[in-house]
Amino acid sequence: MKMVMKHTKKGKVIKYLELFAGIGGFRLAIDRAVKSLGLKSECVGFSEIDSNAVKTYKANFSVKENELDIGDINSLDSIEKIKKIPKFDVLFAGFPCQPFSLMGKKGGFEDSRGTLFFQIAKILSIKKPEFFILENVRGLKTHDGGKTFNRILEILTDNLDYNVRVEMLNSSDFGVPQTRRRLYFIGVKNKKIFQQVSGIDFKNKNIPKKFKTTWHLLERNVDEKYYLSEKLIKTILAHGSGNYWSKSEINRLTACPLTASMHKMHRANQDNYFSDDFIYGKFNKENIFSVNKDKNKSRIRKITPLEAFRLQGFNDSFVKKAKNVGVSDTQLYRQAGNAITVNVAETVLSSIFKIAV
Fold this sequence. Notes:
By secondary structure, the protein is α/β, with parallel strands linked by helices. Helices cover 33% and strands 17% of the residues. The protein is built from 13 helices and 14 strands. The strands form 4 sheets. Strands 1, 2, 3, 4, 5, 6, 7 and 8 form an 8-stranded mixed β-sheet that branches. Strands 9-10 form a two-stranded antiparallel sheet. Helix 1 crosses helix 13 (342-356), helix 2 crosses helix 11 and helix 10 crosses helix 11 (316-324). The chain starts with 5 loop residues before the first strand and ends with a helix.
């Protein structure tokens, strides 16, 4: 295998490029994965156009002077510019999901954001890294009757000569209490290594659970600004109106998927809300939960940014550092909703590196 890893006295170094980096979920994932295996990782460059996400990214990672801060991926508008990217082993891209989302307009490749996939393909064709991991929403698989999904696979396999495995992975299977199903495209150049990668069961790795349920990760004392007014509670708890009906449920032990727009607050069938009697409840020795009847069940709040980041597998320090550089709650909610679940990517990477490195 033609890895470009360099060897140091402390071990092997895996180089990577992170596209559509957001706040650096893949970067944190590979940092954790290599550490557990006694390896090292090195970022050669990253791209992200959201200035607030970049603030959070740079507040949490030691971005070196020699790393390429690409910004808009469309700035790589020539073969010459792509060739100047330093060699790397792995390409990451949580490429824009809006064109393929079940909640979006489903424009697919007709949407300008959808065509950004071709930028990824162009970089893969020129730089030819040994591995790539692409992440997107599950709606991509059924968009346009499956034509979009099949076209992407065709490009990755037939045009770019990668062996590709596609997995639908749910965050709740990877140590965080959030239902979040996402597609992972795992590309491998080497056919022999791919045969081994194909046999990995990513979902049964006995991932340690830092937070067993949402109750375990909730903050007990938060600012009053996170609590809902009586007027807003009626809207939040409404099951629907007209021809639309969906049961609105609060106090879920496993959270529903975080969204980039959760700062706006939707009905409880879309977002996550908790009442005081639940927040201050408890599990007994038999692991049976009971609410605290001394607390007001009509006092309901939304999740905090810290809780949202916990649901995505980030450390508490991540939010603290972002706030220290002036990132607002609104932006933090958006960033958490757009992020990958770190635990999922970490598991995929560590599983592959155990075989390939």
